[in-house]
Amino acid sequence: MNFEKTPGWLDWYAGPSRPRFELPPGAVDAHCHVFGPGAEFPFAPERKYTPCDAGKAQLYALRDHLGFARNVVVQATCHGADNRAMVDACRASGGRARGVATVRRGIADAELQALHDAGVRGVRFNFVRRLVDFTPRDELMEIAARIAPLGWHVVVYFEAVDLPELWDFFTALPTTVVVDHMGRPDVSLPVDGPQFGLFVKLMREHPNVWSKVSCPERLSVAGPPALDGERAAYRDVVPFARRLVEGFPDRVLWGTDWPHPNLKHHMPDDGLLVDFIPHIAVTPELQTRLLVTNPMRLYWPEESR
Ligand code: 0GY
Fold it and tell me: Rounded to whole angstroms, what are the CA distances from 275 to 34, 146, 281, 303?
């Protein structure tokens, strides 16, 4: 099937630079996606955008170019609850990728087991209104109860302004809860202010809550690196990410978010994104936890000490 990209869609950055920051051995890109290719894995009828094709071959070429050892492939909303592209990517990785799926109420036990066998270790609940239609909370809670016995976790994606309303639901979840992109704070607000303070409180009071300190390119108001080659871009995001990396060093993850869906003005060079890491995890110890120890504990517990 042929799909036409959403008008204005930005394709991923071709020819990313090689990072100056050397990733620790065994580093995991714990948030990335595959899109199609649409001819092989059609996009879902209920999708809110149609992306470019971005398949597993390109993802794994990027992994090798940047110096990552493994990936966590997160189901993107353009594929709805059809997990075939993500599962195919996991299966093709030779055990070097895990997956996070989207499932609907009523999924059969055998289907959950097949996802597990392919490498899926979590489900994603998305609350970002521009990306998904509303799903009743009782349906999500039912899914959480079904996946908990498999040892899976729940990944949640939401905007910071919606956290007060989602608080009771999140804190009732029976599994580890991994928050995408720090709960999308408004980084023009103070890091010590009430909005980010509520997110920090969620992590402080609930030791089952983890955060991806990812997506500076999405959260930054200050913007990308200057054209003169300044590599420490997205400076306004740094205090937010550092607060979490230093406050909760055993519950943070990092990912590229390749192929960067729905960016409107700027597509990041993934090499520069990797160079952002030492600004938010400033010691080798913190970097190893963020990039190796934590994702291994969550996604490859059988291999982690
Ligand atoms: C991300 C961010 C976005 C999209 C999705 O599944 C998705 O469609 O997650 C977004 O548009 O902010 O993490 O990929």
Answer: 23, 39, 11, 27
Class of 28-300 per CATH?
alpha beta
Tell me how far the alpha carbon of residue 219 lies from the centroid of ligand 1, in angstroms: 12
State how far the Cα of 158 lies from the Cα of 131, in Å rounded to an integer. 10
CA of 95 to the centre of ligand 1 (A): 24
State how far the Cα of 153 lies from the Cα of 165, in Å rounded to an integer.
21
For residue 100, give Cα distances in angstroms to 182, 185, 240, 281: 18, 23, 25, 25
Alpha carbons 52 and 78: distance in angstroms, whole number: 11
Q: Which atom of ligand 1 is nearest to the CA of 218?
A: 12
Nearest residue (by CA) to ligand 1, atom 9, is 76
Separation of 76 CA from ligand 1 center, angstroms? 6
In ligand 1, the atom with minimum distance to the C-alpha of 215 is 13
Judge residue 265's burial from the number of C-beta atoms within 10 Å of its C-beta, 0-12 exposed, 13-18 middle, 19 or more buried: exposed
Catalytic annotation present for 269: no
Q: Which atom of ligand 1 is nearest to the CA of 214?
A: 13
Q: In this predicted structure, what is the pLDDT of residue 228?
A: 47
pLDDT, tens digit, for every residue of 201-250? 999 999 999 999 999 999 998 877 655 455 557 889 999 999 999 999 99
Q: Tell me the whole-structure pTM to 2 decimals.
A: 0.97
For ligand 1, residues with CB inside 6 Å are 33, 76-78, 131, 157, 180, 257, 261-262
Would you kindly state where each structural domain of the chain is located, as residue ranges?
Answer: 28-300
Range 53-58 contact pairs with CB under 8 angstroms and sequence separation of 24 or more:
54/12, 54/258, 54/259, 55/85, 55/89, 56/85, 56/88, 56/89, 56/92, 56/93, 58/12, 58/259
